[in-house]
Structures are given as C-alpha cells and as structure tokens.
Amino acid sequence: MTETLLEFFKAMAHESRLGIVGLLAQRERSVQELAAALDLKEPTVSHHLAMLKALGLVTARAEGTTRWHALDKEALERLSKRVLQPPRPKAIPPRGADAAEDKVLSAFVDADGKLKSIPASRKKRGVVLRWLMRDFAANRRFSEAEVNAAIQEHHWDSATLRRELIGHRMLARKDRIYWRLPEAEWKAGGEA
After folding, report:
1. Nearest to 22 by CA among 69, 81, 61, 84
2. How wide is the angle at C-alpha 150 spanned by C-alphas 73 and 178, nearest 5°?
C-alpha cells in the first residue's frame, strides 16, 4: 500500500502529468492533442503517459494508426478511497465485557468484524446487539439510512437487526430518526 501511494504521489507531483490527467478527465485524447494542448513534445507526453499507465490511471486503445488515451476514472476513485480511508484493523475479533461475551462474539463475528449469522438464542443475540451498539454514539440522532449503513458494515440484514435493536430498547425511533437509549433501559441479557 505504501509503495502504491508513493508512486501515485510521485506521478501526480508533476505539472505536466496533472495537466494530462485534467485533459483526459474531459475526454479521450491522442498524444498529438495532448502535446499541442500542453505545449510539450510528443515523446515527453508519451513518457508521462507511460507513468500514468503504470499506475493504472490511464488506458489506451488503438484506432488505425492513432492511440487514444483515456483516464480510468474508476481506478482513480479506487486509489483515492485507499488514500483517504485508512484500512480497518484485521485479525482482532471484537471484545465483549467478559469472557462469556468474548466467546459468543468469537463464534458469531469474524476477524473482519462481519457478523457470520444472527444468533437464534436470545442471550447470544443480546451480546451481538450490545456489540453492534458500539457504532452508535450517545446524544446523536441518526437517519434510517445511517443506521442501515452502520449495521451493513457488519451484516447484510440491516432491517432485522435494526428491529432487534429497537425491540431490545437499545435504539429508539420517531419519524425515521433513531437515537441510542441509555444502557440502563436496555433489556437485560437480551430478553425481548
């Protein structure tokens, strides 16, 4: 990851390459068009394009004797996400308040923080729901979309888990706005 970022920043730290990326963001262009627009020689443009291609940011297609170059916007978007979103820590399962909770969480949550399944046992489900609640700060309101997104970070069935969180009095809602209830109001042991 660090090497990729270093190469990306090296490539983008040159005025001509930034100009090429800007022009290719508008539409695909030939080396000749890029050279004329940037007032550069064609071999210089080809050199800069080669660096951008090596990073996977530029694609090329042949049409007769002309090669058309285009910015791969999806590759740029993926790279910017990697730069701006730090990786999530892996291989450390979430921890509960005690050894029994740790055992339940180890059984139902993988090392990436994904819920393998929703426990059938109410007691175990309560442990998992308390673990999910760590994503919801007190004294903050959440839209339904935010609640769903937070839950979907861990499991695809946000509707069921959202209903469970409300049923266990961990979250409250009114007019599709949700908020965390005090832990003293949560149903003890996960009894619903």
Report:
1. 69
2. 130
Task: For residue 21, report the phi and psi dihedrals to the nearest 5 degrees.
Answer: -60, -40
> pLDDT averaged over the chain?
84
Report the range of poorest mean pLDDT among 72-81, 89-98, 110-119, 159-168.
Answer: 89-98
Instruction: For residue 137, report the phi and psi dihedrals to the nearest 5 degrees.
Output: -75, 145
Residues in the chain: 192
Beta bridge partners of 141: 179
Domains and CATH numbers, the chain: 2-84 (1.10.10.10), 99-190 (no CATH)
Per-residue exposure over 47-64, b if at least 16 CB sit within 10 Å of its own CB, e if not = ebbebbeebebbeeeeee
CA–CA gap between residue 192 and residue 186 (Å, rounded): 10
The closest alpha carbon to 101, from 130, 133, 135, belongs to 130
pLDDT band of 82, cuts 50, 70, 90: low
Helix (H, G, I), strand (E, B) or coil at 124: helix
Task: Report how far residue 116's alpha carbon sits from residue 23's, in angstroms, rounded to the nearest whole number.
Answer: 46
Question: With contact defined as beta carbons under 8 Å apart, do 54 and 47 qualify?
Answer: no
Give the containing element (helix H, strand E) for 66: strand 66-71
Q: Are 108 and 115 in contact (CB under 8 A)?
A: yes
